[in-house]
Write a structure and sequence with these properties.
Layout: H1 3-14, E1 16-19, E2 23-26, H2 36-43, E3 46-52, H3 54-67, E4 81-85, E5 90-96, H4 102-112, E6 121-125, H5 128-133, H6 138-158, E7 163-167, H7 186-201, E8 212-214, H8 216-224, H9 236-255, H10 271-300, E9 304-305, E10 312-313, H11 323-345, E11 351-354, H12 359-375, E12 377-379, H13 388-408, H14 414-442, H15 447-467, H16 477-493, H17 500-503, H18 508-528, H19 531-538, H20 543-547, H21 554-562, H22 566-582, H23 597-619, H24 624-647, H25 650-653, E13 655-657, H26 658-665, H27 667-677, E14 679-680, E15 685-688, H28 694-723, H29 728-756
Parallel strand pairs: 3-5, 3-6, 6-7, 7-8
Antiparallel strand pairs: 1-2, 4-5, 9-10, 11-15, 12-13, 14-15
Helix pairs in contact: 2-9, 3-9, 4-6, 6-7, 8-9, 10-11, 11-28, 12-13, 13-14, 13-26, 13-27, 14-16, 14-22, 14-24, 15-16, 15-28, 23-24, 27-28
Amino acid sequence: MGQESNDSCEYLLSSGRFLGEKVWQPHSCMMHKYKISEAKNCLVDKHIAFIGDSRIRQLFYSFVKIINPQFKEEGNKHGNIPFEDKIASVKVDFLWHPEVNGSMKQCIKVWTEDSVAKPHVIVAGAATWSIKIHNGSKEALSQYKMNITSIAPLLEKLAKTSDVYWVLQDPVYEDLLSENRKMITNEKIDAYNEAAVSILNSSTRNSKSNVKMFSVSKLIAQETIMESLDGLHLPESSRETSAMILMNVYCNKILKPVDGSCCQPRPPLTLIQKLAACFFTLSIIGYLIFYIIHRNAHRKNKTCTDLESGEEKKNIINTPVSPLEILLQSFCKLGLIMAYFYMCDRANLFMKENKFYTHSTFFIPIIYILVLGVFYNENTKETKVLNREQTDEWKGWMQLVILIYHISGASTFLPVYMHIRVLVAAYLFQTGYGHFSYFWIKGDFGIHRVCQVLFRLNFLVVVLCIVMDRPYQFYYFVPLVTVWFMVIYVTLALWPQIIQKKANGNCFWHFGLLLKLAFLLLCICFLAYSQGAFEKIFSLWPLSKCFELKGNVYEWWFRWRLDRYVVFHGMLFAFIYLALQKRQVLSEGKGEPLFSNKISNFLLFISVVSFLTYSIWASSCKNKAECNELHPSVSVVQILAFILIRNIPGYARSVYSSFFAWFGKISLELFICQYHIWLAADTRGVLVLIPGNPMLNIIVSTFIFVCVAHEISQITNDLAQIIIPKDNSSLLKRLACIAAFFCGLLILSSIQEKSRH
């Protein structure tokens, strides 16, 4: 195990804090909450032994309940308690040794013999009985030191082949202690803990002790011992936290859960990642060489002084920037950015923390950005429905809300989750509306347009798949918009190609387009209710390479099905709007309401009622699965209501928020970049650049995150101009090169998969 994982293990065992009342946050890393199946999978063929007093017995019960929640706290309290799951082949024993004495020593000594099977994990600890029986005398402490000194070498020997943990004593709540326990004071507990730490840590002369100190339970107890029933034993929730910490310490390095960064070594670089690192390194070196040569050439041509006149002669020739320079510069910047991505979310260089939701962490930032958005408002260049500034604004505020939703962990609050689902649907609605409008008005079905859109949508994700070693489907939104763009393109490009120019001459063509849309809706319904057919289509090679996640396409089917109708709704809305616009039914002048006053007021009233009705329904949701089932059919209600509220009043249509619009222009990059450089552990946690100061950390990490997203947007635009030329013959050559690149990537990916298995 690497140094980083050892450090995070020490942090997990020794430090942390509570987020709220019952959520424990280790210092610098994330703790995974193990399910029954995961715990059994990790502990298969394993033997875990707990040795000690009643406190260790409590920890034993909580640990076993992770494996079997039905296990009851029964049996002889002052005796050994066995547990075995024969199906999972897991054995956990509690051995009653309430004092560190000869009896405990003999138990441990048996395991040190070569012929005896040793437990894989040993959790030991005791002290309170010694304090109680000997009435807290100094002689008892001296005897404790002697006994633990004799046990220390045995524990150290066991620690070479097993994981050995010494549990330090938790504080007590002295006011609640019964009369026969009044001698157990926190002062005496501290003395016993100091003795145990000093002796066990000095058991090896020349190296660090292999016996790990389980001191984190002391911190947990300091916050929760007041809830104890007897002042000595911890409440159940605290014991469960300690047991889960033990499970993380042992199992994280085995199962490697994404949201369990504690005790995990840095994943080894794959062959593809190494090749990517070489490529970016060469790009940086190439650009530096190019820059030095260009700079030297520029110095030769710089201004010089005319000796006769004493005036400067200026070289007025501006050398155009070559495509090669733009290419090298873009890949140079991208290489540095990708190095930052890797350091943030793969190299264990920066800390990660679990999310913790409270209403204030979600709603206060929402109010703050809303005030900023309203403050920065300007007049639009045009006053048409869903004009460019307005759609950028819409994307911008939605993206900011989604970012706050992700970092605050608001997905645990169902009403917020349902409203965020509408925002995701609104993005897809705009996909249907925007691409349909373009093809309908322009009639441009050329390969250049398709390649430009596909490149802009997928470039960053493809790079991240390579650098971060993640499947394409992991960034689910990009595959979603990519597939829907291709669906829109195929629907409109297939014979007969019906565009606005053709339809204006004959209304029959409008009917033909509606038939196309009806057929599209029929296909959507068929795939939505035929999971088998859907999975067969997307399980075909090479589609399976793009849409599989964890060996199947279920996640892709679920994501696609969740918003299956909204792109169709966007296309239909665009068709109706453009038809009404062509017939001059709408009044889109500056300051004018969209319809006559009576119709505008009526539609505005209906829209507000519909908007609020949907919000009330979403806020009253009790079951996520049932609400998700209704969402595809009803999400369009709130989307259309918002569009009408935003566009019917002329004054509302004539202004937009430049603040939101700026973020809207980089919304795709923001959505993708958040996975690794704002959030952490593939969105499961939060990146910590500045530990100990959450507010400053979020300010710094957000600033870097937004700057990086903006820079990547510029890089993508620059590369799109070079890699996707307008000339068809050049474009076909580039496409052949891109196809060869992806073929090579597939071959390397297959080699990697075989080597892993």
